Amino acid sequence: MRRLLIFVLIGVAAFILGLLLFNRRLRRSLTAPREPITQSLTQQALIGDDIRIPTQGGRMLDGWLLPGTPGHGVVVITHGWGANRELMLPLARPLQSAGFTVILFDARNHGSSDSDTFSSMPRFAEDLDATLAWLKTQPALIHEQIALIGHSVGAAATLLAASRRTDIAAVISLAAFAHPDGMMRRWLAEKGLPFFPLGWYVLNYVQWVIGARFDSIAPINTIQSIRCPILLMHGSEDTTVPPDDAQALFDNRPHAQVILRILPGEHDASEEIEHHIDEIVSFLKPHLGATQMPIERPFEQPSANAP
Q1: Confidence (pTM)
Q2: SS3 173
Q3: Nearest-5° Cα angle at 19, 16 to 21
Q4: Which of 7, 27, 214, 220 has the fewest Cβ atoms within 10 angstroms?
């Protein structure tokens, strides 16, 4: 009997140790890579200022403020997983040229911002909220209308943040996923992990770590609480987040002021977005207080099959 008890204790200890090692490896696999900032605004030949923004846990975010024309509104851009503010400049440059003030920031564990214990979509939303709180302390910007643009995980975080606020004039989502469960299941399939029991455990472990149930933060649910106009843009050849996710978001739109545009391109559609910047500017201008300029290519009727 004593020997059996010893074997049981050894077995339990081995199981716990294996579980801890699995959790550690899992967290490493889900850690966002840090892409460094390679050039300053001066080197980028851009007019703007370096900014530092306090966020949760005493951490600081690094960012840029690109000034525009007073009264034309502020656009806050949130990058995606493993990216940084510099990679969003192909979008920020033409927005500044159109007269908008643009704010870009690095989420925690990204770019040159402070490190933290882990990254998650809700933490991206926290950093976006911190950036908006900082914006409200700037006398020159406090009365400006605000629009939010996010890419991928940053887009999901943008939808989450906007769903909790009433001070946002417009939202643009670039390649947002519809539900974290779907993203995680695709990741598990890529890793060759069976859903039961490993996949089921991974999904529940991740929800425990980030402190939120997937259903409560899923864009397909949070979008329903957003009251401002929304533009959903998605690449037709996106294999990271399939275009069906964009259609699902559109199908769950909260009001008539939601536009879906399926564009050519993959998940990182920065180059393709440059070709459609006129649509983005035309969408933003009426909602940010600027006088609307003539639109060469007006928006078509919302359609998942729009070219």
Answers
A1: 0.88
A2: strand
A3: 110
A4: 7
Euclidean distance between CA atoms 302 and 294, whole angstroms: 20
Query: Is the bond into 197 cis (omega within 30 degrees of 0)?
Result: yes
Termini Cα distance of the chain: 73
Angle between helix 121-135 and helix 200-210 axes, rounded to 10 deg: 20
Phi-psi region of 111 (alpha: psi -120 to 50; beta: other; left: phi over 0): left
Residue 241 lies inside a defined structural domain of this protein: yes
Among positive and negative, which fits the CA dihedral 191, 237, 274, 145?
negative
Do 140 and 70 contact (CB within 8 A), yes or no? yes
In a domain, 208, yes or no: no
Assign residue 146 the CATH number of its domain.
3.40.50.1820
Structure tokens at 289: 């207080």
Q: What is the CA radius of gyration of the chain?
A: 21
Rounded to whole angstroms, the Cα distance separating 282 from 273 reads 14
Domain limits for position 94: 44-179+218-287
Quote the pLDDT of residue 78.
98
Tokens at residue 142, please?
Answer: 């406090």
Selection from 108, 119, 80 nearest residue 206 by Cα: 119
**Residue ranges of E strands in the chain:** 49-54, 60-66, 74-78, 101-105, 146-151, 170-174, 230-235, 258-263
Number of domains in the chain: 1
Instruction: Convert the pLDDT of each residue in 106-163 to its tens digit.
Output: 999 999 999 999 999 999 999 999 999 999 999 999 999 999 999 999 999 999 999 9
